[in-house]
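Same chain as my last thread, 96 residues:
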Amino acid sequence: MASTGRMGNMSQPKQQQQQFENFTASSLYCDKCKAAMPVRERLLLILPDKEVYDYLCTGCASSVGSREVTAGEKMMAQAAAARRPRRAAPVQRLRL
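reply #2:
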């Protein structure tokens, strides 16, 4: 008898599992503004083994969260970016 439980997802290819390893927020809830607001990411601290980023509300500039990126995660993200094919610039036609 074949099992159709949740364990079937464990055999996904490694590439599919890696596509969601690194998240950056585009909006977060701000207590001062009382709403979900767009945020900007600011590098707060660089340590030998990680970097700490602070998320700032674009409405009131208060800190609404943080994110830590370890050295290993950063190296993996750089390697993945190097593997992605670059799109060629669009060719512009000259009118004569």
